[in-house]
Write the structure tokens for this entry.
Amino acid sequence: MRHIAVTVNGTRHEADVEPRTLLVYFLRETLGLTGTNVGCDTSTCGACTVLVGGASVKSCTMLAVQADGEEITTIEGMAQDGELHPLQKAFHEHHGLQCGYCTPGMIMASDSLIREAPGPLTEPDVRIGLEGNLCRCTGYHNIVKAVLAASEEMRAGSANR
Ligand code: FES
Ligand code: FES
């Protein structure tokens, strides 16, 4: 076993983990944060996407021990003070989900895509930026609309700060 300490959604956690434990299983099974989904376990679908140090990472591609000392954000950490994150609101308003299985991963990947973009996102930017996230319900059209809407709101919000 290896001892690790991580900060997840602003809360510090320490735990002993097996070296083979994937980050996604640490989040789901040790910390009980089941909003992060497992779709494939083979780095194909993006359902397990979280932010590690602010960058989107497929948490089935990372060992929990590799996350030692990191700041991690999961879908449970996106709403603040009872207010949904602009991406969560936009997915709701634009019907960017059907079964919802891919949604947490889509939102986490979109958050880093929007924050890392040098300027306003275009539709091709979103489609290319999210190509590592699969929606088995094939709801891509509304997902793209939601991300574009959230991108505008997030950029306007940061310009007003
Ligand atoms: S479960 Fe991680 S990419 Fe599919
Ligand atoms: S909404 Fe069902 S997998 Fe995307």
